């Protein structure tokens, strides 16, 4: 019985560590109102929406919109642009915590 409990605890810990691992993804920085509408276009609109209170979001290559839980990590020069981010993602909540961001090559 103790062995099963230990095995379960070890598997659970491994799953938590695997889920919290950083990933690198390429996409666009948009705003929370327009989301995937501005993939690759509309940088001026994204900048204006964020200046007016919308939150920056990340739109991945499959047009899924991810909320950014640390929006201060996104410099305004990246609003509306194609970027590569290193982030910890929470797929269940569709959120990400950005560790680094750079212009996509």
Structural description of this entry:
The protein has helices at 2-19, 43-51; strands at 22-31, 56-60, 65-68, 82-90, 95-103. It is built from 2 helices and 5 strands; from the N terminus they run αβαββββ. With 105 residues, the protein is of the alpha+beta class. The chain has one domain: OB fold (Dihydrolipoamide Acetyltransferase, E2P). The relative contact order is 0.20. The chain is 26% helix and 35% strand.
Compile the SSE list and pairings.
Blueprint lengths: L1 H18 L2 E10 L11 H9 L4 E5 L4 E4 L13 E9 L4 E9 L2
Parallel strand pairs: 3-5
Antiparallel strand pairs: 1-2, 1-4, 2-3, 4-5
Tell me the strand percentage band: 35-45%
User: Which class do the helix and strand fractions yield?
Assistant: alpha+beta
CATH topology: OB fold (Dihydrolipoamide Acetyltransferase, E2P)
**Mind describing the biggest β-sheet?**
5 strands, mixed, barrel
Morphology call = elongated
Domains, number: 1
Low-pLDDT windows of residues: none
What is the average of the pLDDT values? 86
- How many helices does DSSP assign? 2
N-to-C series of helices and strands: HEHEEEE
CATH class category name: Mainly Beta
Which strands sit side by side, in order, in the main sheet? 1-2-3-5-4
Total beta strands: 5
Helix content: 25-40%
The gyration radius over C-alpha positions equals 17 Å
